[in-house]
Write a structure and sequence with these properties.
This protein has 16 helices and no strands. By secondary structure, the chain is an all-alpha fold. Pfam families: MatE (PF01554).
Length: about 450
């Protein structure tokens, strides 16, 4: 089944070039490897902006740090546009309803466009208040507000990229988003240099360059989905019922994401209270953890698409097989990442700091994080499986439960842990150990049952 370059590529139920159905392992890799590339390409936007703006001065770089935190939080909360669309499109495709699958993708993009427009206007208007609430001084605040306002129009593009990427993942096409993400990263680099230094726009040029790039990426991905929708005979008009259904499916995932963001912010708050060494070490440990999360999230994306397709096709045995195999991949990847990132911490810690105390804290924190990485692999994959099954309501409640479990642990670390390396070790154990274990137990208990395996379109 192929929709002008927009359909599945050796997906579930298709025949490979050898004439045999592809194995689950091959399907996982075919989806996960390009997805990983796209996930890694996206952070390059922030790195390029930081490198370009950093040469404008300390105030500009600090302003970018504040503005990027706000922008990434807004976009992060809207990741449900990708996850919910992936699950819905995959389920309909598995049920043999190609027009319905494409219609779901179109409805998701209309929701993203409307939400992006509202958020862009709100961010432009509220930028001074939001930055002021973060406590920045006048010069830094001015730089942050400038970046937010120039980048705000790009929110429409960012959310459309999420929705269109979700639709393509549901169609088991992760290569197209990879190509667009890599191209976007290159274009963003060129535009930032040209606008910031060529036209002397300063930090405003960086914000504008990112916005233009995101809108261009959205146009490319939307064009691919629209082409597939036309080929399948789906309507391109906004349908109130379809957009409402996309919003309802996404609301529980929004709640789930909010609990995760709350846990991350709480962890940063605890690190701040434990002193400069702990906070500096935590910044590096959390960044390295985030890098590992990309690899594990790529497996979760594969699980979303394959589980949604299998359930849509009323194939419960295949759903169980995908669950079992993706869990094996997730835990195995967690073991490898834990050994590499934890075992090599003493080698890369000096790259981030010349302070011996901070470097020691990084090494200790990464050793703890490395030990917990297999649990994270289990958690990420099960998240993907349950999202692919459309079990967002359970994930929302599970997120709340795990946050309630984690809060007293985090507060205890803040109150009783010593500063420095020991404090970071306890904090890392609280987040990557207790918090992740709570998530593993809740999602694992759910996956053992059958109530999440609702079949059909």
């Amino acid at each position: 089944m192929q929709f002008n370059g927009c359909g599945p590529r050796e997906g579930a139920g298709t025949i490979s070039s050898t004439g045999q159905p592809p194995t689950i392992d091959r399907q996982i890799l075919a989806l996960a490897v390009p997805a990983l590339g796209a996930l890694v390409a996206e952070p390059l936007f922030v790195l390029v902006d930081s490198a370009v703006v950093g040469h404008l001065g300390t105030a500009s770089l600090a302003g970018l740090a504040l503005a990027s935190s706000v922008l990434l939080t807004v976009v992060g909360l809207c990741v449900f546009l990708a996850y919910a669309t992936t699950a819905s499109v995959a389920r309909r495709l598995g049920a043999g309803d190609a027009p319905g699958a494409m219609q779901t993708g179109v409805d998701g993009m209309w929701l993203a466009a409307g939400l992006g427009l509202v958020l862009a206007v709100a961010l432009w208007w509220a930028a001074p208040w939001v930055v002021g609430a973060l406590g920045a001084d006048d010069e830094i605040a001015q730089q942050a507000v400038t970046y937010l306002r120039w980048s705000a129009p790009g929110l429409v593009g960012m959310l459309l990229v999420l929705a269109a990427t979700g639709a393509l993942r549901g169609l088991q096409d992760t290569r197209t988003p990879l190509g667009v993400a890599v191209t976007g990263a290159v274009v963003n680099s060129v535009l930032n240099v040209a606008l910031v230094y060529g036209l002397h726009l300063g930090i405003a040029g960086s914000g504008a360059g990112t916005a233009i790039t995101q809108l261009g990426m959205a146009a490319a991905l939307v064009t691919v989905v629209v082409r597939g929708a036309r080929a399948a005979g789906a309507s391109l008009r906004p349908a109130r019922a379809g957009i409402g259904a996309s919003a309802r499916h996404g609301a529980p995932l929004l709640a789930r994401t909010a609990t995760l963001r709350a846990a991350i912010l709480l962890t940063t708050w605890v690190a701040t209270g434990l002193g400069a060494v702990t906070l500096a070490g935590h910044q590096v440990v959390s960044s390295v953890w985030g890098l590992a999360a990309f690899a594990l999230d790529a497996l979760a994306i594969a699980a979303q698409a394959l589980v949604g397709h299998a359930l849509g096709a009323d194939d419960v045995p295949r759903t169980r097989a995908v669950l079992r195999r993706t869990l094996q991949w997730g835990v195995g990847a967690g073991v490898v990442l834990g050994l590499v990132l934890g075992g090599a911490a003493a080698l890369y810690a000096p790259l981030f700091t010349s302070d011996d105390e901070v470097a020691r804290a990084i090494v200790v924190g990464m050793l703890v994080a490395g030990l917990c990485m297999p649990v994270a692999g289990w958690v990420f994959v099960l998240d993907g499986v349950l999202i692919g099954a459309g079990d967002g309501r359970f994930l929302a409640w599970a997120g709340l439960v795990t946050l309630v479990v984690y809060v007293p642990v985090a507060l205890a670390v803040r109150a009783w842990a010593p500063p420095g390396a020991a404090g970071l070790a306890w904090l890392t154990l609280g987040f990557s150990g207790v918090f992740m274990l709570a998530r593993a137990l809740t999602t694992g208990y759910r996956a053992r049952g059958t109530s999440w395996m609702v079949t059909g379109a």
